[in-house]
Design goal:
Aspartate Aminotransferase, domain 1; 3-stranded antiparallel beta sheet; 14 helices; 12 strands; binds pyridoxal-5'-phosphate; PyrdxlP-dep_Trfase_major; Low_specificity_L-TA-like; pyridoxal phosphate; lyase; L-allo-threonine aldolase activity
């Protein structure tokens, strides 16, 4: 049997031999002492890309998000986020558990940001009776929304509104690379509008582990203390930062191939049933399937695909997700389309 095609996530990629060579050769030191040159140069490099003063390397994107929001929001204060955002749904309540942060959410169709919807919810300086809003999180691209790229106009509008209300803005930019490739918006343009940013090296860029939280020096210094307190002060972690440098050098421009293949999958799926996905909305590497009109559940559909050699995610009773990535080529794309077409017909 041929190896299964794995489209559960863009986190499933394995480091290439060239990336492993880069890791093996990376100069290292004890990063808790600030002595790892490869980590230091990675933090400086990514901070400069986004026009930020500093960055701190973390093992996961969840930790990068959590370090960011805890520097913005005090215990008992409120963070606003979209109702299907990663911070709210996929970090196991970390904001509440670790930082005493409460959240309130606004729903957005396909995760697409409408600044007004978020701003209308905000209640800064609420006094001694109601919870005060301190920050808003924006996810770009929006994962559970289907890899949605946030419009720059809405980002500008939410920054303007946040300034008027005295609120901070966090960008969950786990897949900001995909947003940049799809939209052509420069990283330092995105960087302008946010007080803190998290980015993942282990998604589309294909590094095995690693994220970075970016902000000004003061917040990053605080975040370093909390990173250690959480037990994520790492030692000769330049081995991983070496993979991240390699990923930034070699795996950025090719993201457009992931986007093209995701579109091909969406077109094939829509040819079976238009209600499952609108290919026009597939802008990046995520294809979200709405199976509301199908006679099977997402779990049943995923099981059917798996039997045929294609792994996908069932993320809701009727919502399935396919994610294209570095280890998924044109030949596998053809094979995946054949499997999907057979599995989609009831
Ligand atoms: C993957 C992801 C993260 C971070 O996930 P980790 O598994 O903790 O690295 C954060 N935000 C979004 C939108 C993601 O897709």
């Amino acid at each position: 049997m041929t190896a299964p095609i794995d489209l559960r996530s863009d986190t499933v990629t394995r480091p290439s031999q060239a990336m492993r060579d880069a890791m093996a050769q990376a100069p290292v030191g004890d990063d808790v002492y600030g002595d790892d040159p490869t980590v230091n140069s990675l933090e400086e490099r990514v901070a400069a890309m986004f026009g930020k003063e500093a960055g701190v390397f973390t093992p996961t994107g969840s930790l990068a998000n959590q370090l960011a929001i805890r520097t913005l929001v005090a215990p008992g204060e409120e963070l606003l986020a979209e109702s299907n955002s990663h911070i709210v749904r996929a970090e196991l309540g970390a904001a509440a558990v670790f930082s005493g942060i409460t959240t309130r959410t606004w729903p957005a169709t396909n995760g697409l940001l409408i600044a007004k919807d978020a701003l209308d919810l905000a209640r800064p300086n609420s006094g001694p009776y109601l919870v005060s809003t301190t920050a808003i999180a924006v996810e770009n691209t929006h994962n559970f929304g289907g890899g949605t790229v946030q419009p720059l106009e809405e980002i500008k509008a939410i920054r303007k509104g946040a300034d008027e209300l005295g609120l901070a803005l966090h960008l969950d930019g786990a897949r900001i690379w995909n947003a940049h490739i799809a939209s052509g918006v420069a990283f330092n343009e995105y960087g302008k509008y946010f007080d803190t940013i998290s980015v993942c090296l282990s998604k589309g860029l294909g590094a095995p582990i690693g994220s970075i939280m970016l902000s000004n020096k003061e917040r990053v210094t605080k975040a370093r203390i909390w990173r250690k307190r959480y037990g994520a002060g790492m030692r000769q972690v330049g081995l991983l930062a070496g993979a991240a440098h390699y990923a930034l050098d070699h795996n950025m421009e090719r993201l457009s191939e992931d986007h093209r293949r995701a579109k091909e999958l969406a077109v094939a799926i829509a040819s079976v049933n238009k209600s499952f996905v609108d290919p026009a909305l597939v802008e990046t590497n995520i294809v979200g399937l709405d199976l509301a009109k199908a006679p099977y559940t997402a779990a049943e559909f995923a099981a059917r695909c798996k039997d045929a050699g294609l792994w996908i995610s069932a993320l809701g009773p009727k919502y399935a997700r396919l994610v294209t990535h570095l280890d998924f080529d044109d030949e596998q794309c053809k094979a995946a389309i054949e499997i999907l077409k057979r599995a989609l017909v009831a």
